Amino acid sequence: MAAPSTHQWFKSSYSGGSGTECVECARTQDGALIRDSKNKKGSSLAVRRQAWHEFTRALRIGQLPEL
Questions:
Q1: Cα torsion for 47, 65, 13, 23, to the nearest 10°?
Q2: Which residues contact 41 (CB under 8 A, 6 or more apart)?
Q3: Does pLDDT of 3 surpass 60?
Q4: What's the rounded Cα separation, in Å, for the pair 56 and 28?
Q5: What whole-number distance in Å separates Cα of residue 64 and Cα of residue 56?
Q6: Is residue 38 one of the residues assigned to a domain?
Q7: Is the residue at 15 inside a domain?
Q8: Which are the contacts of 22, defined by CB distance < 8 A and separation ≥ 6?
Q9: Which residues contact 6 (CB under 8 A, 6 or more apart)?
Q10: How many CA atoms lie within 13 A of 39 on its CB side?
Q11: Which of 6-10, 14-18, 48-52 is most confident?
């Protein structure tokens, strides 16, 4: 059994309002962690500080392409 996470997780403000696209994030010393809020015991994605900064900046200014 995995140890409980000691990170402060928060729901992304970019998650969908319908409850089907929920993403949670946690800041770390080196960057951020990202996980599916509906699967808290599942895997998380680690992102280095500079990549996280560039990603969130692109979100804020609308530079990400639509899928």
A1: -50
A2: 2
A3: no
A4: 15
A5: 10
A6: yes
A7: no
A8: 11, 15, 16, 36, 37, 38
A9: none
A10: 9
A11: 48-52
Tokens of 38: 């509906």
Q: Which residue has the tokens 């500079």?
A: 50
The rounded distance, in Å, linking the Cα atoms of 27 and 10 is 9
Tell me which residue range forms the domain holding 60. 22-67
DSSP letter at 66? P
Q: Encoding tokens for residue 57?
A: 């900046």
Instruction: Place 18 in a pLDDT band, splitting at 50, 70 and 90.
Output: low
Output the six-digit token pair for 5: 């996470």
Q: Please, what is the Cα angle at 57 between 60 and 35, to 5 degrees?
A: 90
Domain count, the chain: 1
